[in-house]
Amino acid sequence: MFDLTGKRALITGSTQGIGLAVAKAFAEQGAEVIIHGATSIEKCKKAADRIPEATLVVCDLEDTDAAEKIYAQTGDVDILVLNASIQYRTEWQSVPYDEFEKQMKVNVYSSLALTQKYQSSMVKKGWGRIIMVGSVQQHRPNPAMPIYSASKAAQMSLVECLSKDLAPTGVTVNNISPGVIATPRNDAVLSDPKFYENVMKKIPMAIPGSTDDCIGAFLLLASEEGKYITGADIKIDGGMSL
Length: 242
Hints:
Helix content: 40-55%
Order of helices and strands: EHEHEHEHEHEHHHE
CATH architecture: 3-Layer(aba) Sandwich
CATH superfamily: NAD(P)-binding Rossmann-like Domain
């Protein structure tokens, strides 16, 4: 089950956190994995220490031509996981244009551009998996991160649009919405006792998730076992979105 032998998988933002956990799980299931980082080849190399056969790609998704640059380094893939994102904690009254633009470029436009670039080979083969990584915030927006929340809602709209169009071709497009997951991105805020207590009150399970809690959904959607799932949004949030 979840055998990915012979498949090539590109996971954006895979030098740490959920992206790295997914890359490692895919490799363990036989996939040829491509690790992506925004700017640091050293971070990519460190991640590859855990996945010795991985290919490394460095490209900033803020670049308008990032999809072209990444594709030039990887060629076609069978599985595309759009995990990389940017978030800023800024109240909506104070959001500057550059923060808005960066989050929309990386979180929404790059998802569209990379899907545009990689889907054609998947369509030709009659098999492909595109998995976008959303957030609990698309369901329960955080007032401190309004643009990040909006960008993830926009990304889910893309999933619904693209999945319907690609459904007859054998290419599925789905979304996974993690909640509060213990990753390096969240280390600082979760280490604050008051913040931690307040956040746990919003989660019915009253605990943060781990990257391991996310892996099963990615493996299902990336594999043959998930062939009849498209346009879906799988929440992994301990009930936070309820």
